Amino acid sequence: QIIQRLSLHAEKGESFEMFQQASMTTMEVLLQCAFSGGNLSEQAKSQYIAAVQKMADLTIKKFLNPLYMMSDFIYNLSSGGREFKRLCDFVHGIAENIIKQRRQQLES
Question: Residue 50 pLDDT more than 80?
Answer without folding.
Answer: yes
